[in-house]
Amino acid sequence: MNKELYDLAAWSIKTAKSSGADESRVHINNQRLVEISYRNRKPENIKEASTRGLSIEVYVNGRYSAQSTSDLRKNAVKEFISKAVSTTKLLAEDPYRTLPDPKYYKGRSEKDLGLVDPDYKNFNPESRHKMVKDIEEACLERGGDKVISVTAEEQDSHVEEILMASNGFEGYTEATVYVAVASMTAKGEGDRRPSDYSYFVCTDKKEMPKPELIGTEAAERTLDLLGAKKIKTEELPIILENRQVPRLFGGFLAAMYGSSIQQKRSFLSDKKGEKIGSKYLTLLDDPFIKGGLGSQLYDRDGFAAKKRDMIKAGVLKEFYVDWYYSRKLDWEPTTGSPSNLVIPPGKRSVKEIMEDLRRGILITGFIGGNSNSTTGDTSIGIIGQLFENGRPVQAVSEMNIAGNHLKFWHGLVEAANDPWIYSSYRTPSLVFKDVVVSGL
Amino acid sequence: MNKVSRRSFIKTTAAAAAFTAATPLLSKGWYGLARADTPGYFEREFSVTDSLCSKVLAKALSKGGDFADLFFEHTISNWIILEDGKVNRAYSDVSLGIGIRTVKGDQVGYGFTQELSEKPMLNAAATAATIANSEPKEISGKFVSLETENYYPLKTLLTSIPLESKLPLVQSVNDKAFALSPLVVKVNASFHDQQKRILVVTSEGIKAEDLQPRNYLNASVTAEKNGRRERAGWNLGGRKDFSFYSKSVVDEVAKEAVERAVVLFDAVQPPAGEIPVVLGPGVTGVLLHEAIGHGMEADFNRKKVSTYCTMIGKKVAEPVVTILDDGTVPNLPGSINFDDEATPGQKTVLVDKGILSSYMHDKISARYYKVKPTGNGRRESYQHYVQPRMRNTYMLAGPSSSEDVIKEAGNGIYVRDVSNGQVKIGEGDFAFYVSQGLMIENGKLTAPIKDINIMGNGPKMLKNITMVANDFEMAKGGGGACGKGGQAVPVGFGQPTCLVKSLTVGGLKG
Predict the structure, then answer these.
(1) Nearest to A23 by CA among A88, A83, A104, A91
(2) From B383's CA, which of A5, A409, B94, B196 has a CA 20 to 30 Å away?
(3) How many domains does chain B have?
(4) What is the pTM of this model?
(5) pLDDT in tens, B313-337
(6) Residues 20-49 of A with CB under 8 A from B
(7) B433 in contact with chain A, both atoms CB, cutoff 8 A
(8) Predicted ipTM of the assembly
């Protein structure tokens, strides 16, 4: 526990009380970050800084507001909290706004989530520059004479957060985060300059792939896009690459929040207990994965974290309902937002599945698009590979898939064996049948 | 636009302050700065003197480099939110800090701190300095204040307007929306205002201080009919004075949001595939922003990663097409008196009668291309690097009537509103999401359409703009923001009705 942060949080709660707040909840974060990028074998950008921020939610006479500031001069914070309280008094009453019942704070796990890399302090400027240079070099080498531009980058940070509420909640989280990125632009046909990237995030540097792999992967993904074109509109099986699943599934997830349901903008509001996808669709919310990017012992309300079945064999089991919307809906709360989302992997590799399907499209990127959480309608541009006889034969671009989430996930026929661990969405590649892919 | 010096701006705001003071019923409880705006804000409030700036700049150039700059920021943002019929939620954010940049060729060293005192600033400057490794560079230590046009004069600071004056706006949007249609079941309304104070100090001896307001009134409406629900929204705003938010603005926000939600019950799916697309006037200018604008940002071109990097001086469109990026249009979200490198706000012609005439430059790219910066060097906050960014991007009006453009399309779709545009710079491929539109059948507008994606290729689409109408409009919303490199900045866009003879429509039917 960082005592300075703890003292500031406790002082803020005391100050809110003396300014007239009935209750308050304070969140303070403290971060040290470094970013280094290379291009043309020399540093392009170097950035380093420390940041702090304080946010406070105040509850006054049945009224509520939330305020945040990066101006942490003590007098400024005092004036800031005093004004927050007086602002709140001017708003309309909201009987549903209270701090949570402390019974939900209880039962907090004491597991070590492994969010802090003990070797972080040894990650010095020389190690950082070497890592980025090695990523760039690998990308340049694999890209060969097709390279127009390569950028390699690393970011790392050490983050501390305190959450404290006036009705007894106290929580402290500490984490390290490493990000490595390589991006390449290649010489294509005519004026086309295809580009793609590799992107990895983890809390422990030992989990980060070798720089050579990061750079090589970016080059290979880019080279795979050479000669991309639009093909004719047709109904085909698609394989959605593991790391692309969150973009599509995000449209589904948006309808799983208590706020969406209470505000009548969820196509799932009356679907709890019903089949909303095929038997291959199972979704777990697991806050206890060691080193997981979404791992946590408590949520933003201070609720003790629990592992949850959100969707089981296609049946919708739970929603994300925080304390406030649980009171508005008169439902039992769960948790306000996802921790680590896990779709269990299947048995076959993407390569085996392609060989079995013979012909279809492997989606390796999305562009534009959106999803309507009220109706479930979605439409999104795709980038990827047409495969025939089980092998990629043509890069595709300027194409699109569309549908409604309530129908779309019934088309899920298999999960591959390749869960992506560099995200809080730990999802494998997913296979769908009979999707209209529009092009020519 | 009249040239407004900092001094005349004081008079305007002093008068406004007097008005506020003479209104005793209005509380000052809302978080804001209830004081006259005067030059030297950062010196007065945070003791940022010229000599301190000199010392920090000298540190930033202590290992050499071409130039350095300091970007001070103090931003106050407020939101008031209505849900379930009551304005019962408010958020505020205060962002304070300084970003220090050292530039050597195309290399950038960057440090920032939230403490505006000497020691942390010198530490951040030392970080920035690490990008260079030669002899220290001397700076003069004298700074000349930049005088610019004022493209967003205010009668009073929005953060000085008491909360009680803002609450009725949001409540009225809600009440009006429910009154307009029995199908309305939920209304979410909000008012956002932001006051961003910046001070840019450069090693070249320029000091530029600005106050950038931004605000908008927003409504999102959910309607229900025969068990089906649809939702749509609308907002109006920009860099406006509070006097903009009249009854007619409230009425328009509510009316547009309700009409746009209710019409969706009749929406049909268009056929998928390549078809003619007519872009309606105003907000569809986001297509220009995505398909053309990003590719003309100079950083992508100096790195040779944009599909437009070999096209300067070449024909990229029919002569009827002229496209500008403009920071000087009064009160638009993307307007800036000067950019975040202290280059004065200006108008840049990107495509002149079909010929690609200029990229959008920051100082780094301008040095590379040996041209003057175009005032496009922008950043989200003191925590971010400068990048070439769009301001307000638009296409000028053409000679045709909108009716003739629709007739020429024959069978296709008419796009009325779009969101979520994205482009792949190197390929020029883009996509945008049609939230509102109509079918075009036999040259006439027929059934509504919604929730489809449109795909295309920027250079190809530019060549495929075959008709441009005479009904130019700028988008009227204030909430538009563009994302690039993890940074969001406010932008505007606009255009007249135009015909693109072929784009890929992502519908369900083949």
Answers:
(1) A88
(2) A5
(3) 2
(4) 0.91
(5) 999 999 999 999 999 999 999 999 9
(6) 39, 42-49
(7) yes
(8) 0.91
